[in-house]
Amino acid sequence: MDNTKEKNNYKDDLLLRMGLNDNKAGMEGLDKEKINKIIMDATKGSRFYGNELKKEKQVNQRIANMMQQKAQITNQQLRKAQLQVDRFAMELERNRNLNNTIVHVDMDAFYAAVEMRDNPELRDKPIAVGSMSMLATSNYHARRFGVRAALPGFIAKRLCPQLIIVPPNFDKYRAVSKEVKEILAEYDPNFMAVSLDEAYLNITQHLEERQDWPEDKRRYFSKTGNSVKIGEPGEEADKLNEDEGSISPLLFEDSPPDLQPEGNPSLLNSKEQSNLQILQNSVVFGTSAEEVVKEIRFRIEQKTTLTASAGIAPNTMLAKVCSDKNKPNGQYQILPSRKAVMDFIKDLPIRKVSGIGKVTEKMLMALGIVTCTELYQQRALLSLLFSETSWHYFLHIALGLGSTDLARTFSEMFRTEEQYSLCQELCTELARDLQKEGLKGRTVTIKLKNVNFEVKTRASTVPSTLSTTEEIFAVAKELLRAEINAASPHPLRLRLMGVRMSTFSNEDDKKHQQRSIIGFLQAGHQALSSPGCVLDKTDKTEFVKPLEMSLKKSFFDKKRSERILSHQDAPRCETVDQQAVQTSQPFQALKKMTESLETSKNSNNCQTFTCPVCFREQEGISLEAFNEHVDACLDEPSTSENSYSHASSAAIGQKEDAHHSIPLCEKQDYEDAEITSADGVDLLETEVISLKAASMDTLGSNHSKEECSDIPNQSCPVSLANETVRILSKQESIQPCTDEVVTGRALVCPVCNLEQKTSDLTLFNVHVDICLNKGIIQELRNNEVNSANQPKGSSRSTGEHTIMKRNAARGGDRPAVLARLA
DNA sequence: GCGGATCAC
DNA sequence: TATGGTGATCCGC
């Protein structure tokens, strides 16, 4: 039922995006066939259309390439991938954070609404803001005719001849936007504006404080009884504004809304005015998140006469989807439990997620993926077809995960001395990090965000390598000076500054490749044995210096390594005053999340884990130890076959591939056979790096002096590690309170048929997944042994050998689509 | 490092 | 008549 509804929504969404509109019969406007025909008539034969066709062809080609690649994936590759992906998913699950209340506020048809507000003649007419070439937005009246944002005005006119196209007044929108932001700032001084009409808030802290507030502090006055429809305080409903859309007079009805008196309603909050009339029009908002958001929307409407929609969820990705759910003039909340999140995600079309656009949707559709559930089901395949960045991103979506912390900004900084001094400070931080890593780079990039949230990056590459504060600052200062001069005579009003180093020498690259923390994450601790060392030992047919090893690696592997490097470059050697976490930049956000995951994973602090295989609690062990335990559990019944499998791949010199595929069985062998004391050193260094990634986050968000009180020693990895653990344990203690725990019912694994000693559905599901894989691999290995015993001998391993070789060989000219999402 | 592709507003 | 402008990221070359 819900499913059907969602899919219909999706269809409507698609139609809407295509310029079609599902119009209610009998209403004024056009039906979708008519709209479609008019748009096609106006489009066909144009240069624009030709280009659209060309682009479509390219996408189709990419899809064809992808399908070809898919056809060549072996079952075994898929199973290996499944294990790897599930391991990652398990880590993500463990680090799921439901403790934040994130709100996404989105003004309804913003530009059009402002124009209607300020010009009564427009109120009962279909209008759009933009030009004959392009429309920025339209009111809901015009949308009935298929007139929407990103439609050329001249086509819109054909759809709706009476359409009034108003040229945009950005200054006015900015002013209104400022009014809205002033309200938002009261709930989260660090809210993140995405654009003039959209912002994210983290109201977690506000909620905490609000619990003690007296009613009067939560009371607001409405001057007109019916212009502001707001649910009764305390009303319990996820979806409180189901039909509120139709009562938004400004946007929906031809009749104009009641005019609201001038003045700031909150100023009326004085005792003299508490006459009956006003009391009748007063409203007290509760202390829940839902009430807070109602209050925010109420205040926005009172102040601007404009309505806003909002979404409330545990992370930005979900909040954004939510704000769209009851648009316009509505709100929707996903409660902070895993079950609530997963229920919401279940049938959610991936296209609804910010970051999944037309092309990605089409590519995934070709794989049979439309909903988040399907995205989850195909996770192993996706990890083989898409870049690591991409499939990590997909997995986050499929699990309903997203960013929980918004960017923090320092208060405005406009004095040049301050700016130079901050820049120097950042250079010092950067130099310290670089020197710790023994890195030298040649490109210095500064990143500036001004008070209007505009971000600029300016880079300069110099001939010689840099590593000291003085050297870096000399370059950074010039970049900053240029920007200050460009703004002159006005001061540069900054909210953010960052300094980044890149273009490292090859030796530096190599060093870092050996200590890749992403590799560490992917492969469990297998990455501890650096690829160079392992290859040196195993591959005796060629004499390769460690430094050149990256050249010898397969294309696929190399590309991955490079990606890993480039991933690490920025966060590791960037010192920035604000986290660049924006949901409109999903990959960036993901990177952040992965880093924080690294931190917790690699921290050597001990916790209690429950093994998803045996379900025994592993008390007081590190994550590495826990991973080892899981591996041991997985390998338990078939260790001899593991070494068989390992030998077959090692014998053909394909260890570098194994490095990425990380079949668990091989990993064990690496540990037994290959880890040396040198690798132990790597382990330590890996930890330092990952902790630094976290410290960078913390530094980044707390660099403004007044905000760093909660982190006593910014540069001390140990304190940060403790911080991480503290957060983690807080989460864990909350876990049992969520409704994901099924009580009083035994869970029996459908694969191994054994009753499982857990009531945690998440763990149980992980167990089933693992069990499933294990069973299949077991079966496969039995076959391997059998075939190996046959006269034709090592047919299986030979077969595998040739397959792998073919893959490796193909790697060199692997079609672009294989390694990338876009 | 640059340009193309993708995505968002 | 006529299908934006900008900024960000990822990726391949």
UniProtKB/TrEMBL annotation:
Residues 102-357 form the UmuC domain. DNA polymerase specifically involved in DNA repair. Plays an important role in translesion synthesis, where the normal high-fidelity DNA polymerases cannot proceed and DNA synthesis stalls. Depending on the context, it inserts the correct base, but causes frequent base transitions, transversions and frameshifts. Lacks 3'-5' proofreading exonuclease activity. Forms a Schiff base with 5'-deoxyribose phosphate at abasic sites, but does not have lyase activity. Its cofactor is Mg(2+); Mn(2+). The keyword Coiled coil applies. The keyword Nucleotide-binding does not apply. It is found in: Nucleus. CDD domains: PolY_Pol_IV_kappa. SUPFAM superfamilies: DNA/RNA polymerases, Lesion bypass DNA polymerase (Y-family), little finger domain. This is DNA polymerase kappa.
